[in-house]
Amino acid sequence: MHKLPDLPYDYSALEPVIDTETMHLHHDKHHAGYVEKLNKALESKPELLEKTIEDLLANIDEVPEDIRQSVINNGGGHANHSLFWEIMRSPQEDNKPEGEIAEVINSEFGDFEKFKQQFSEKALGVFGSGWIFLILDNNKKLKLKRHSFQNSPLMQKNTPILGLDVWEHAYYLKYQNKRAEYIENWWKVVNWTKVEELYKKASGA
Question: What's the CATH fold of domain 99-203?
Fold first, then answer.
């Protein structure tokens, strides 16, 4: 049985970048809805209900066809949002990565500003609803990937270590149609300590 994870901070912790009301709706309604629908899809397959969301998505072809799309949609929503809450913290001005994750980003993208620009452009370019992820691919290389809807990088055996939700429900109460402003402000709340932790775990560093 999959469960909605608690937020690792108060609903108001990301103010003013992400408002309290959006956090309540996003976590308590949208994410909770994905978990509820995922469990419902799996209730007739108890052997699958015991698997972690990572195992389910990484082996999505083994999920019976009659529930596979529901697992992709709702399981992906659950996995994506679980990551999203983890990689944010209270806003900090001039918020930049340090240590090993900074070195790897500089090596793969040139420098942090180039990485930030590429990531932001891809986030802005998502058509409709979706996500932009920084993933560690099968060759342990960092890459940027856009995903439509709630499709998870885990389905391609990639490990997401940073993700930005650009579904309208993630920002519309505060930013309305100004996705670019939401993306720009979001960089202030990225928890680079957590991103580095996820990178080290995924890379075996």
Answer: minor pseudopilin epsh fold (3.55.40)
